[in-house]
Specification:
This protein is α+β, with helices and mostly antiparallel strands and 164 residues long. Among the domains are: 28 residues; 83 residues, Alpha-Beta Plaits (2-Layer Sandwich). It contains six helices and four strands; from the N terminus they run H-H-E-H-E-E-H-E-H-H. A hairpin with a 5-residue loop joins strand 2 and strand 3. The longest helix is centred in the last third of the chain and has 23 residues. The chain starts with 15 loop residues before the first helix and ends with a helix.
């Protein structure tokens, strides 16, 4: 076994109140930040919408893309440059649930007005995490309740796994 530090002696229990205060203050800062910033910023994955990756022949101006999208039916879209190439990732949250291609066609039509034939669509996806998230929470609760019912107490799963 490799030892980086030899004979490390830290009095963890003696300084537990200090460490607890540090941990508590970090958690409190996180909660204050959450309240000040008005909650989490969910992306397209959880709110629904479309993600389109577009490759341009020449490096595009993001502000021009943003303006084209704003003027042509996608005001809440968020274009982002991808490093290394002339690729742009565009997140569009305005697509309707019943029409999966609505967001993709809105973005392509907007880009055609300013970059006619000077780009190609690499991928267009409509994430479905938003539909899966509530069920994932329910299945987690179901599994934890099953474990609790099977063993009689929540800690016994950890103990039984260490015995194997």
């Amino acid at each position: 076994m490799i030892e980086i530090f030899r004979d490390v002696k830290v009095n963890w229990l003696g300084k537990r109140k200090l460490y607890l205060a540090i941990s508590g203050s970090i958690m409190l800062l996180g909660l204050v930040s959450l309240v000040v910033k008005h909650g989490f910023r969910y992306g397209v994955d959880f709110r629904g919408g479309t993600i389109v990756t577009v490759r341009f022949q020449q490096k595009p101006e993001i502000e021009k893309i943003r303006q084209l999208l704003r003027e042509n039916g996608a005001p809440d879209s968020q274009p982002q440059e991808l490093a290394g190439r002339n690729d742009v990732l565009i997140e569009f949250q305005g697509a309707k649930e019943e029409d999966a291609s609505a967001g993709r066609s809105t973005i392509i039509n907007a880009l055609n007005k300013g970059f006619q034939g000077k780009f190609e669509v690499l991928s267009a996806t409509r994430p479905c995490w938003r539909h899966c998230t509530p069920w994932a929470g329910c299945s987690f609760i179901s599994v934890s309740d099953s474990i609790r019912g099977f063993t009689g107490r929540p800690q016994s799963l950890q103990l039984s796994m260490t015995r194997w």
